[in-house]
Amino acid sequence: MARELAIHQVDAFTDTRFTGNPAGVVLGADALDDSTMLAIARELNNADTAFVSSADGNDHDLRVRFFTPRTEAAFVGHATLAVHAVLAMLDGARLRRQKGRTGIVEVGPAGDQLEIRLPRSPLGRRVEGEELAAVCAALGLERSALDEACPPQIAGTGSTRLLIALEHGSSLAALTPDLARLAALSASVGAPGYFVFSRRPAAGDCTHESRMFCPALGIPEDPVSGNAHGMLAVYLDALGLLPDARLRGAQGHHVGRPGRVEVELQGGARLALRGRACHVFETKIAL
């Protein structure tokens, strides 16, 4: 007998349909094996699809796995936001504990937004010299456009990002990335993604503006990344450039999908990612 799966499409880090970062959400995924989840993610063809299963212990309320059309991802911020937007729509907004490959995170309402509470990402090595020159060339970026107060540095574990600061936000629109060269550099640099940002945004209603390129992951340009903004807050704090421990990032407008991410560094080694989400559609798949 065929079994139906409920599937939702959600635009994350926005309150307007067809903007922000789209994610698929598959409910009732307990019985799905890895190959089926990967096939569904490939069929939906979002950058990421979240598969929601019931809890298997007392320390969490649900389990979530994330798949790109190519492979499984450890944790995805915008897809997590999408999951909890769907659950809030179906069963009310409340704090829920989500278990995944990277551990347990808490997600719940924060005013008219959703908040993801998670550990701070560690910072890695700085990238300089010929290696940095190669990355800049692949981005179509002049070294003179860099923000000298923010040395390029790798952040995160697993799905790492190279953080690159530009002096002026207007330079972001002028980037001409060579995606094949960036993908080839990822193995030697040690980061499958390049998060290029400015502390002097050209966009309004934000403190920071950014673009992110992840061709090694099959994502030419990620519209809006929650994870990378969390890494950015930790990085700026380490440099003494985040005095109030908060930032509001603008991303996605360069690819026609504008979104906003708020980050607050909290006590200890934790942070909160905040954003809105917009439900786009629901469908069913019979397996």
Structural write-up:
- This protein is an alpha+beta fold.
- The protein folds into 2 domains: 4-117 and 277-286, Diaminopimelate Epimerase, Chain A, domain 1 (Roll), CATH 3.10.310; 123-268, Diaminopimelate Epimerase, Chain A, domain 1 (Roll), CATH 3.10.310.
- The protein has 5 helices and 18 strands.
- The chain is globular, with a radius of gyration of 18 Å.
- The mean pLDDT is 96.
Short description:
With 287 residues, the protein is an alpha+beta fold. Helix content is 21%, strand content 38%.
Along the chain, the helix and strand elements come as EEHEEEHEEEEHEEHEEEHEEEE
Query: Poorly predicted ranges (pLDDT <50, ≥5 residues)?
Result: none
From the 3D structure, determine the CATH topology of the largest domain: Diaminopimelate Epimerase, Chain A, domain 1
Report the oligomer.
single chain
How many structural domains in the coordinates? Answer: 2
